[in-house]
Design a protein that fits this description.
coiled coil; cilium; mainly alpha; 318 residues
Length: 318
């Protein structure tokens, strides 16, 4: 296996890890661990650098790289398939409290179980890695036609003579810019002064408007209060007049109503004499009962006397 960078490949990016020793693994397969993904900017497999200086590899090398990529993809697929089957495999449930699982052989022939994996050393000789040659500097291909020009004395730029115009332009531009800045500052100061004066006038007008509004509000409240007081006075006067009229009408109506009511009540027996009532209710019934009892006694005596006289008369005639 070899490490091939992106500069050496002309097609899609292909990665092959460097050879390394196999780690010591346990005899039994463990549950797969989840891959922790990080920042790809710190991944060694990400190749950085320019893309215009790639080297074109021979066709045979490209075919070998493609074949190695296909084999790596097959290995990754088979490994993923085995991991999926391992996850789907039914496992023994966890032991209940107070018990523990033990490894028991169920094969026909027993064998010794041990956590130590048998290892053996194997050696092989490989060719030494060749040093990669330095990448040559990129030199663009020459294009165009060479042309020579002859320059006479005095045709080139004379600094002492030409710098005067440049300085005049620079100084004039600086002075003009400075004057513009000063004029702009004066204009801004004038605008600020006008703005302050306008704000002062506006504040004075706002204060005057607020004073007038407050005065108008006080006048309105005073007017409403006076109207309410006048309405209250008129209401009380009307109420007093209604009371006086009702009292006069009541007096006029009750002037002849009271005697007639008393007369009617007296006629219907609501106003009675206590002596007459006592005589009629208590004395007269008692008197009548006494009279009836006396008359009954007299009637009984007379009846007895009549019976005696009748018996005597009958005896005498017989």
């Amino acid at each position: 296996m070899a490490f091939v960078s992106q500069r050496e490949a002309s097609g899609a990016y292909t990665f092959s890890s460097r050879p390394r020793a196999v780690e010591n693994r346990s005899r039994y397969r463990e549950a797969p661990e989840q891959t922790q993904y990080g920042n790809i900017m710190y991944d060694r497999r990400v190749v950085r650098g320019n893309t215009y200086a790639q080297r074109i590899l021979p066709t045979a090398t490209q075919v070998e790289l493609e074949e190695m990529q296909r084999q790596q993809e097959k290995r990754n697929k088979s490994l993923a398939h085995r991991r999926a089957q391992e996850q789907l495999r039914v496992r023994t449930p966890e032991a209940v409290l107070g018990r523990q699982h033990m490894e028991v052989q169920t094969e026909l022939y027993l064998e010794e179980l041990s956590n130590i994996v048998l290892e053996s050393d194997v050696q092989c000789q490989t060719d030494a890695f060749l040093d990669k040659p330095d990448t040559p500097l990129f030199v663009p291909a020459k294009s165009g036609v060479d042309v020579a020009t002859q320059i006479q004395e005095g045709e080139l730029f004379d600094f002492d003579r030409e710098v005067q115009g440049v300085l005049e332009v620079l100084v004039g531009k600086v002075m003009e810019q400075s004057l513009l800045e000063v004029m702009e500052e004066e204009e801004l100061a004038s605008l600020r002064a006008q703005q302050r004066a306008f704000e002062e006038r506006r504040n004075a007008q706002l204060n005057e408007v607020q004073r007038l509004q407050e005065q108008e509000r006080r006048h309105t409240e005073e007017k409403e209060r006076r109207i309410a007081q006048q309405k209250e006075v008129l209401r009380k006067e009307k109420e007093i007049a209604d009371k006086i009229a009702a009292r006069a009408y009541t007096r006029q109506h009750l002037a002849g109503l009271v005697p007639s009511i008393f007369t009617s009540l007296r006629c219907h027996g609501f106003f009675v004499d206590t002596v007459q009532t006592d005589v009629e209710t208590n004395f007269m019934p008692w008197l009548m009962n006494e009279i009836h009892s006396t008359l009954d006694k007299r009637f009984a005596a007379r009846s007895v006397l009549d019976n005696i006289i009748q018996e005597v008369a009958l005896k005498c005639f017989l």
